[in-house]
Amino acid sequence: MNRNMMMLNDRSAANYLPREKIEKFGASALTNEELLALILGSGNQDCNVFELSRRLSEFLSNQARVPSLVQIREIRGLGKVKAAQVLACLELSGRYILGDKSNPIETPEDLMGRLSFLKYESQEHLVIVTLNSVNCVIRVHELTTGLVNKTPVHPREAFAKAIEDRAVSVVFAHNHPSGSLEPSLEDMAITRVLCSAGRVLQIPVLDHIIVGKGGLTSICRMDPGMFEKTFSPA
C-alpha cells in the first residue's frame, strides 16, 4: 500500500461531516454539537446548522432538567418545528434504551436508561421497575410524586403494579432533586418496609436505587443484608 493510500485510509474522524462520521464511527464518536446538527438537519437564513447546534448545545449544558418547548424556543434562530424535534429527542432519550427490553438486568447501572428521566425532575418521584424471571424489564411505573419521606408509601399500593404485571421481582427507585446520592434515614426505613413486604408477597426487592444528576446509589450495595435477593437471574 503506498503512502497516499495509507493517508487516505487514516483520514481523521474530525474531517468527516456528521452524517459520514456516524456511519463510519458510530454515534459515540460525534460531539454534542454534531449530534444536534443531525437532529436539526439544517440552519436558517441567519445562521448555519453548526452555529445553531452550538447555541443549542451551550443552552442545554446549563440546564438541570429537560427544558420546556417555550424555553428551547428562546434560542435565537430555533423555530417551533425544530424546537419540538429537539424536545422529543430529549424526552425519548430518557425513556428508552434500544434493546433493554430483551436484555437481562444484571447491575443497577443497567437500569439507568429507563431511570435517567428522574435526574431532571424538580420533585421526588418514586417508581417501581417490574422484572420477569430472567430479570428483563416488564414495565416502569410511577408510584408517588413529592418528597418520598413525606408521601406515605403503603406496601399494598407499592406492589399492586408488580402483581398486575405478574412480576417475579422488583426494583424501587427515586430521585434526589438536590443531586445528592446519599440515602437519608427515611430512605433506609422505607426500603426495609418494602423489602419486608416483598418477602411476604414472594416478590423480592432486588434494590432501591437513588438517582441524582451525578449518577446513582444502590442501597443494596450499601446494605446487602436488607435484601432477600440480588440481580442474579434465577
Can you characterise this structure?
- The protein is an alpha+beta fold.
- Helix content is 39%, strand content 15%.
- The chain has 10 helices and 5 strands; from the N terminus they run H-H-H-H-H-H-H-E-E-H-E-H-E-E-H.
- It has helices at 3-9, 18-25, 32-40, 49-61, 69-72, 80-95, 112-115, 155-164, 185-201, 219-222; strands at 125-131, 137-145, 169-175, 205-212, 215-218.
- It has a 5-stranded mixed sheet with strand order 2-1-3-4-5.
- Helix 9 links the parallel strand 3 and strand 4 (205-212).
- The model is unreliable at 1-11 (pLDDT under 50).
Task: Furnish the topology, listing elements before pairings.
Elements (H helix, E strand, L loop, with lengths): L2 H7 L8 H8 L6 H9 L8 H13 L7 H4 L7 H16 L16 H4 L9 E7 L5 E9 L9 H10 L4 E7 L9 H17 L3 E8 L2 E4 H4 L12
Parallel strand pairs: 3-4
Antiparallel strand pairs: 1-2, 1-3, 4-5
